[in-house]
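Quick one, probably user error.
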């Protein structure tokens, strides 16, 4: 019977230690690691089954790109309304909608979007119709859209917004007269004064006034007529915007009580 060498290593002990070292060297996937991986995926906000675009729409405010697309769309709508009314005029139906898309851009996205919509509409019309008609749109209707959007966003009264818009519309009227006179080489304002003088002479005859209207009276009547026309236009624009923007979820300030009573509007 052979004797065991007491100095020789125990084979069973070496075998056990070797198995233990093999187990520690091999990577193992524990359930805890899987759970940590799932938790990390949940913290990142994307679970693999939902697209990043859907996640962006589901959480948080609209992105800057969405605001840019919306502003460009409203500017294009305003420019196309002007284009259609120029070549296929349906009367005064489309004129009341000239400043509303730009005002809506200001109302939804703020002053930068309003001015950008005005500029983009002007650039679009420059490409489609030329710079002259583009300038005639920007002044006054583009700037008027920015002014109306600012007033509606701040909740100003109808009286103030209509007065400011009428003043801007009158300035735009004289700007168009000046630009057209410059391009045609004729004084169109003098022609308009002749028409006003003829109307006043007819009115004096009907009233039995034996006098000729003075130049100051003729000019005053022309100025008043331009401003009253702008007031009526802005009042109709407010009525159309009240009906349209309430349905779009961007209401403007409430009209005076007498307008609510006339139109039975709550």
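Nope, works fine. Designed sequence:
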């Amino acid at each position: 019977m052979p004797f065991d060498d007491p100095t020789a290593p125990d084979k069973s002990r070496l075998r056990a230690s070797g198995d233990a070292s093999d187990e520690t060297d091999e990577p193992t996937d524990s359930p805890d690691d899987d759970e940590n991986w799932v938790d990390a995926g949940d913290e990142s906000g994307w679970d693999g089954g939902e697209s990043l675009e859907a996640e962006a729409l589901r959480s948080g405010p609209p992105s800057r790109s969405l605001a840019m697309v919306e502003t460009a769309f409203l500017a294009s709508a305003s420019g196309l309304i002007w284009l259609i009314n120029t070549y296929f005029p349906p009367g005064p139906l489309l004129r009341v909608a000239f400043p509303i898309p730009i005002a809506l851009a200001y109302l939804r996205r703020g002053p930068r979007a309003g001015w950008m919509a005005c500029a983009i509409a002007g650039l679009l019309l420059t490409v489609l119709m030329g710079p002259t008609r583009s300038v005639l749109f920007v002044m006054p209707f583009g700037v008027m859209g920015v002014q109306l959007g600012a007033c509606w966003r701040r909740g100003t009264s109808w009286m103030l917004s209509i007065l400011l818009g009428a003043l801007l519309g009158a300035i735009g009227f004289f700007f168009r007269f000046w630009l057209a006179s410059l391009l045609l080489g004729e004084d169109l304002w003098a022609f308009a004064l002749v028409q006003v003088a003829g109307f006043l002479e007819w009115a004096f005859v009907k009233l039995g006034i034996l006098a000729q209207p003075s130049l100051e009276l003729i000019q005053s009547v022309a100025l008043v007529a331009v401003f009253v026309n702008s007031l009526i236009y802005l009042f109709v624009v407010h009525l159309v915007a009240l009906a349209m923007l309430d349905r779009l979820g961007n209401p403007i300030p409430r009209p005076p009580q007498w307008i609510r009573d006339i139109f039975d509007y709550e």
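The first helix runs from residue 11 to 25.
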